[in-house]
Each structure stands twice: as C-alpha cells, then as structure tokens.
Amino acid sequence: MSADSxxxxxxxxxxxxARPGVLHGLTxxxxxxxxxxxxxxxxxxxxxxxxxxxxxxxxxxxxxANHITGxxxxxxxKRCESNQEAIWDYREKYRDGLRYVSLLGLAxxxxxxxxxxxxxIARELEAGTHRLVWAQSVTRTRWLAHKxxxxxxxxxxxxxxxxxxxxxxxxxxxxATIGLYWYDRVNFVPMGPALVGYSLFFIALGAATxxxxxxxxxxMAVTLAGSGLVFGLVSWVRxxxxxxxxxxxxxxxxxxxLDWIQGSGPATQAGHRFPxxxxxxxxGQGDGAYEKCLNKAGAxxxxxxxxxxxxxxxxxxAEAGVCVVLAALLLGLTWWWVGxxxx
Length: 343
Fold this sequence. Notes:
Elements: H1 3-9, H2 25-66, H3 78-81, H4 84-127, H5 129-134, H6 140-173, H7 175-178, H8 185-188, H9 194-213, H10 216-237, E1 245-249, E2 260-267, H11 289-296, E3 301-307, H12 312-340
Antiparallel strand pairs: 1-3, 2-3
Helix pairs in contact: 2-4, 2-6, 4-6, 4-9, 4-10, 6-9, 9-10, 9-12
C-alpha cells in the first residue's frame, strides 16, 4: 500500500476529551471552562436541598406534635393561646437554621455574578485566547453566543430549583408560626422568581463588566460592588412595584402578621390622614390626654397601607421583571461592545 493510500484510509481519531453525541465545538469548550463552577454549584444545591429536607421534616413534625400548626404569637384561637410556650420554643429551635438556608439561597445570584459572570469574557480577553478562537473561522457573535448561553441557562435552572426548595421549606415551617415572613429581606428574594431574575442580571452584569474592563480581578470586584448596589436600590423601591392596599378602620387595627405594613396612623372619618406620631406629645400626660388630642382633631379612625400576602407573587414577579429587563440591556451592551471593539 502506498503512502498516499495509507494516508487516505487512515481512520481519524477523536480529539482528546471530545464526547460525540453530547457536546461539540464551542459548547464543549465553554463546558470545560466552567465545569469546576458547575460542580461547585451542584454541591451547593445538594447542601441547600439536604438542609431544607431536614428542616421541613423537623418543623412539620414539631408543629403537629405540639398542635401549633397555623398558630401565631398574636392569634389563632384557644388552641394557639394555650401553646405560646411551644411556639417560642419552636422559633428558638428552628428559626436560625431556616434563615441560614435562605441566606445561602440569597447568595446564589451574587456568587454567580462574581465567579461565573465576571470571568466569563474578561479571562479570555485578558489572556488573549479569544484571538485563537476567532482565527479559526469562528465569528465574534457566534463565540459570544456560546459563551453566554450555557451559563445563563444553567443559572436559570439552578436558581429556579433553589427558589422552589427555599419556598417549600419556609412554607412548611409556617411563616407566622416560625416568625420568618415573606417580606423579610432575607426571605423575599430566595422564595420566588426574583431569585431567577437577580441570577440572570448578575451574570449579565459580570459579563458586561468583563468585556469593558478586560481584567478578571477588577471585573469581579466591580461586579460584586455593582450587584450589592443594585440589590439595595431595588429592595428600597420594592414596596412601590405594586399598588398598596389602604384601609380605614375604627377601633383596633386588624393585625395579620403576614401583611407587610407600609404605614399607619390616625385619620378622620372622611379619610384625612395624620402621621403616626400625631398627638405623641400628649402621651404620658394622664387624664386621657392622648384620646382628647385625637378627638379634638376628629382623628377617631386609623389608616393603614399594606401589602397583603396575596401580593407576594405579584411583587416577586415584578421585581424579577425589572431584573430581566436590566439583564437584557446589559447583554445588548456586551453584544454591541464585543462586536465593534478592536481587541
């Protein structure tokens, strides 16, 4: 057999590490670059799920054994009133554990932005390896699409699973019974779709920062700072993302621990509001001075602005929507910058 024929009939071998039928080309390259982060994320998910399963089992069993299911410290009927000590003991035993798991869930978007989003593009631009890929008939847009798609999809799935697990855990424990409420800053995001929105946004923020700065460590620092700033700002405007419910009552203000109270105070029958501090100067003067002050102003009613628990999902989806829009804007910026910038 001639050398030429030997060359023509020589079987081609698969490149080292290639896996036919599973991942190919750029997708396989992106997986190899992020597999350490993927395995770490999987380990974190296992830890969160394991802790949540244990706490769900322990809290539901305790509530059933001590007849405090659905009870609160401020209501629930005679059954609950006679078990106040059990409720305090229940909170002391399990509340911190549930809070720690919620904090782990809340950390997911920040970790994703810091360790996946920021190095996503910055590492290649800093090392110059992007030129090697672009020199092999791979366009910038195709390279960027593969770089972004796998981490974004993986983060979407990971954060969605995490939010479902945390929500299942806290709901099983009974928010009002355990004293961890849906509107608590630690619980609100990891209990719903807002966690998915933040995860996508922080990945996009990291990618955009890396493309602009081209320095991995610098991009990580800026991404972490930017993530914290945006989280704080959105948390501040959160109560205003959905219209509040206003009530006007005479006598005792209805007290539902699952309502997120935004403000309250005295009011007239016609609905004219006074601040909550109105007539505070008359308190402690005796002889019904406080009541006389209110009656003189005609403030015999009470106003309350609140978000009932029925607003929980609406607020979470609204916040997730804000994050998704911001993520789309940042991805568009990254796409435009990488496509036009000379590297």
